[in-house]
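request received
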Amino acid sequence: MAPAPVDASTRDRIRDAALALFGRHGYAGASVRDIAVRAGVSPALVIHHFGSKEALRAECDALIVDEIMGRKESLLDGEPGDLAATMQRWLADVDSHRASLDYLTRMITDGGAAGERLFDDLVARTRAMIDQGVAAGTMRAGSDPAMTAVIIATHGLVPLLLEHHLGRALGEQGLSPALVRRMTLPTLELYTHGLYSSPAILEAASAALAGSPETSRGPRSDKGAGDPNQDPDPPAAPASDP
Amino acid sequence: MAPAPVDASTRDRIRDAALALFGRHGYAGASVRDIAVRAGVSPALVIHHFGSKEALRAECDALIVDEIMGRKESLLDGEPGDLAATMQRWLADVDSHRASLDYLTRMITDGGAAGERLFDDLVARTRAMIDQGVAAGTMRAGSDPAMTAVIIATHGLVPLLLEHHLGRALGEQGLSPALVRRMTLPTLELYTHGLYSSPAILEAASAALAGSPETSRGPRSDKGAGDPNQDPDPPAAPASDP
DNA sequence: CACCACACTAAACGATCGTTCAGCGCGCCG
DNA sequence: CGGCGCGCTGAACGATCGTTTAGTGTGGTG
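response:
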């Protein structure tokens, strides 16, 4: 990896240092002084070049957006799947893109206009990819395409958001290439066969929601949440303890 | 909602204020003075009661863990699914549990021993639930049960982690009960039928991975290992840096 | 009443934050 | 050569941070 090439311009070195530290510690957690030390300059020079810490952040945002969306094509011109393709490429060698991926995670979690645009674009591209897959017959059409696209897109972000937990829970530190590869098959299994072996739960939930379209006081089956990790019994079963 | 009941003890009021502000702005983003103002006391009293800001955080952690795991049962005694069931109940009316859910999100994302234990426990319970489902015949057994449990568990956390984006992308603000309900069917569809209409992609990826178990120069099928969703990959956190 | 424990506060301390300021050195242009 | 722009720095400013200190009032107990 080449975090801080000495031959780069001083301004670029500061920007790269900011990108690395914002990504690792968050915007609030990375001080201008820390950034200056990493870039080998004085804190005053950081402000001199960028005007303020917030403006420096904006420039980092723009750089990452460029890197994700592709420098040469506009946001929506490429193939629908190329955002995912870009991320795939990044996955191939994690280490060299670690700073960018860290920063991307912060953009999505820290909240901000740039992060919102990035997320919305990711959802839009996922939606287009699904529509294309449905048209080609390789994917199933869901009952709520907009929501399905959001769900699929967010599921794709999980390894980014929970990298640390994923690595730790599986005996590695961080998200190694080996871990990424290990995720492939179980993920594809889930997206090919699902988890449930019968449509009983889906049908039960569907019937329950159709029966109580508004806030349901009645059926205890309001499983609303996004996870299937609810108890394996059908929606009618009550959930127990407080 | 009742954020600060006046009749509660002062100590509890401080703790509740800290929980709300830590959840909303993060640990670093919420100052002792802010917490004191919200609790209607002086900043010094916060330290007087809890010793330090970090100790206050620890008490908030413990409170939330208690609330999630259930006050009366030990962490692993209950039914395998009851952690998910608890989250289900919380999501059923998000507004009244807003502070706890926000804090839970921070615990998982901010990194810390309590958050790690929480995550690991969630994965363990998810694993147990899947094993139980497989034994009962209601779920399919995956090729990598440990990884499958991690994936399913993390997918369940998505609505929490990306609440803001989810709401915005779907035209609401935050995670409304209506939105939670709307997620139910598409999620269950995904977990029942999957996304792909044929096992072709899974089989291709399976063959490719079997052919190159170690660092693969990559199946040239552009989608090969990749599916729509896996985008991510994060950086690890090495120890050192200036 | 005397005494003390304790909830509680005002003020301040030292550290660190983002930012400003005055100035230094050096290369370029007249 | 003289001046000037500019990359760059050390020092400082004011704000805010977590925490400490010294102290006040009050209520219970001897």
